[in-house]
Amino acid sequence: MSKLSVSEARELPVLQDDVAVPCCPPLTERPLSAEEAERTAAMFKALGDPVRLRLFSLIASHESGEACVCDISDVGVSQPTVSHHLKKLKEAGLLTSERRATWVYYKVAPDVVATMSALLDLRR
């Protein structure tokens, strides 16, 4: 592997946890690339589990726009399982989190619902 000279080096963008990057265009606009399909599949796969979908819904509909893990733990599974599912939702880019003292607060990643909605918009 060859090294890049200083003039050839490119600065990569830094992604913030709270900034959603649109995954892809609406499905009716053009076929998805392999990379776009991978990112989109990861989001939908994460939501394909009923417990994860319920957790996502609880957080998205919470009155303050964010929910403490203590507010969303009653979904019929153990606390370690809730944590596992929240981790999967974060890894898929659907949630962000912030630790405050002993609690972790989750919120839907900005624009993620709008991005998913736009992807599925079948109107031309």
Number of strands: 3
Q: What percent of the residues sit in helical stretches (DSSP H or I)?
A: 25-40%
Tell me the CATH topology: Arc Repressor Mutant, subunit A
* Low-confidence region ranges: 1-21
The first-level CATH class is given as Mainly Alpha
Averaging pLDDT over every residue, what do you get? 79
In spatial order, strands of the major sheet run 1-3-2
Radius of gyration: 17 Å
The dominant shape is elongated
Structural class: alpha+beta
Helix-strand sequence = HHEHEEH
The tally of domains stands at: 1
Instruction: Provide a count of the helices.
Output: 4
End-to-end Cα distance, whole Å, is: 46 Å
Largest sheet: 3 strands, antiparallel
Strand content: 5-15%
Query: Can you say what the CATH homologous superfamily is?
Result: Winged helix-like DNA-binding domain superfamily/Winged helix DNA-binding domain
CATH architecture: Orthogonal Bundle
GO molecular function: DNA binding; DNA-binding transcription factor activity
Domain HTH arsR-type: 32-124
Keywords: DNA-binding, Transcription, Transcription regulation
Protein name: Winged helix-turn-helix transcriptional regulator
